Amino acid sequence: MRILACSIICLLLAACSTTPQPESYLLRSSVTPGAGGQLTPGGITLVSVDVATYIDQPGLVIETASGQVRTAKQNLWAEPLRHSLMDFLANELSQHIGKTVNVGLQSAGKDDVRLLVEIDQLHGTAQGDAVLVADWIIKKMVDGEPVESSYRFSQVEPLKGDGYDALVSAEKELLVMFAHAISKSIN
Amino acid sequence: MNDLKPDVKRGRNVSPIWIVPIVAVLLGIWMVGYNFYNQGTEVILSFSNADDLIAGKTKIKYLSVEVGQVEGVILNPEANGVLVKISLEKGYKTLLRKDTRFWVERVRIGAGGISGLSTILSGAYIKLAPGEGEEGARKYVGLESPPVTPVGAPGVRLVLETDNASSVSVGDPILFHGYTVGRVESMALDEFSQSVRYNAFVDAPYHKNVTSGTRFWDVSGLTLNASTEGFTFSSESIETILSGGVAFAVPAGFESGEPVEPDTVFNVFDSYKETLQKTYQHGAYYAVQFSQDISGLVPGAPVTYRGVHAGRVVKVMVRELVGQKVSGIGEPIPVLLYLEPGLVQMGDTPEALERLTTAIRVGVSRGLRASLQTGNLLTGSQFVTVDYYPNEEDKTLGEFAGYPTIPTVPSGLIQMTRSAKSFLDTLNTLPLEKTMNSTNSAITSMDNLLKSRETQNIPDKLNAALTSISNAAGGLSPGSPAYEQLYGALVALRETMASITPDSPLYKELESSLYKLNITLHNMEQLTGSLSETARVLPAPDDDDIIPEARK
After folding, report:
1. Do B512 and A79 touch (CB under 8 A)?
2. Is B551 an 8 Å CB contact of chain A?
3. What percent of chain A has pLDDT over 90?
4. In this complex, do A158 and B508 lie within 8 Å of one another by their Cβ atoms?
5. Which of the residue ranges B44-58, B94-108, B272-286 would you say has the lowest mean pLDDT?
6. ipTM computed for the complex
7. I want to staple A84 with a disulfide (CB 3.0 to 4.6 A). Which of A27, A181, B225, B412 is the partner?
8. Is domain A2-186 in CATH 3.40.50.300, yes or no?
9. B508 — contact with chain A (CB < 8 Å)?
10. Do B542 and A19 touch (CB under 8 A)?
11. What residue ranges do the domains of chain A occupy?
12. For B91, phi and psi rounded to 5 degrees?
């Protein structure tokens, strides 16, 4: 009888317990647009940013083993990665190049340098690193002829601490480095 | 001794041997009686010859049943035929009627086919067809060929008369709309009328189609007729082509009339076309005299008035011409015409004829002339046409051999010569010189026009106009206002279209909404998961996210 009473109390307590509130992380560039001074019209357009399917969802991703990933359910991106990545990269590129980077195809000028980005991997690893693998294509007119160049970026950044905050920070670091690599390829 | 006296007994009076003759006599009486009782009926048949007939062997058959036998064959008293004595078995005496017919059945090969093949093996036999008349006749005239129509068959028997028997023969079909409805039974030459008369039988119920308005015509073989109207070719069925035949119908436009009695006489026309020709009672003879070649003009050739059939040529009156005791040479050849007012729809009355003759008399004074025309170039057949020639001088009706004559005008080559002369005269009167002068003047004016300065400036003006057009078209070159305007419109259009591209705010908004929906669904999944967990008696610990750890 005593065991039954204890069980009922435990059940009631379990029912009253609340599920933890998921954490959302905002992917924003630390560079404020226009903070670096007057930007000149750049003639550069970031046309699109495509992301791999496994990271095109709210949860952050941890690679637990080779080829095995786990998507977090309590630690989510605050907005779709393809949008936040596009704004993030555009800001970073503007900072590195010193020129305005347009976003979207409709804002592309006739003679603009066009940039197409594809994020292949962006996740944390069980080894305590953040991984970013991405490709980009630059299309521009040289002497009236369209010229197309392809590049690849693959970098690992160790986490500076435990937890998802550290993972998001490491991924931001990687994205900054990626933007830097792009800017160098444009120049 | 008395014992030795012979005992004489009187024998019987009748010897048994007499039984034999008595039986023989009785048997003879029975045989005579039997023979008399079963004696057949003797009949005498007369045939033209006794081919295939053998006394005591040739059978008499009716419906392939033996009903008698030829008993003897002898010549008739005149020795121009044979008398055949036949004996019909007793039970068949009723077959002997007044109109019973006998004929010899033997192999016959004709246009209608081969018959009597069975007699090749069995030998010829006499066939009889019982009639429907009175009984009791014992002498008959045998038929030389099998009867075409059975006795008593329903229908009507007609007499067809024609002048030419070359194409129709006994057994030929009688056709109604191409369908065989009867046959020709016999033919004979009528010495009185010198015509051939056929007995034809039309089966019931088609005999109702034979009326007083019916006309018969010969459809034998192929008919190729060359006349002024060209060549006409006609034929009926294959059967009639091979064997001949007679068709009948009521021609279009004719009254059908009343049903006819048996043995009504009909004339057989040579063709259907001839049946269409109405015969009129009233007509008038006229003579025309031609001073040209009249070969191809035959009796029966049409006489037309402006193409309308008005009569026919009766004959060429050469004999009458010779009888005229004409002097000199080159006399025109007279031709007798017969004109009928009924043909030109004036009516077949004496009054109509009077009107016709009056019209011709008056017409001749106003230019009515007869001429010879070629009806068919291939056959060379000619006909007479009557028409008005206003340029002809006034004339009156003449007379030849008692017939009034219509004046003629030459035709053919003579007419052509006249026409050619008339044409040349007309050509002569044309103002050719004046026309040529005018033409020359016009050409000179044209030359001056071409040489004028204004005309020569035309190419330059044309070139300037083309340059203007080119400049106008150049207004659309890059940099021109029109081009800028067009480009602006295209940019606006692109911006409009961009509002629904993947980079557009609208699209982003939609995608953001979908993202929120995705999160909601994710939360729902968590909720369902929690509910599932809650449903358990003891809740399992939450599956927390893996915490990323930095390198140690």
Report:
1. yes
2. yes
3. 43
4. no
5. B272-286
6. 0.73
7. A27
8. no
9. yes
10. yes
11. 2-186
12. -70, -10
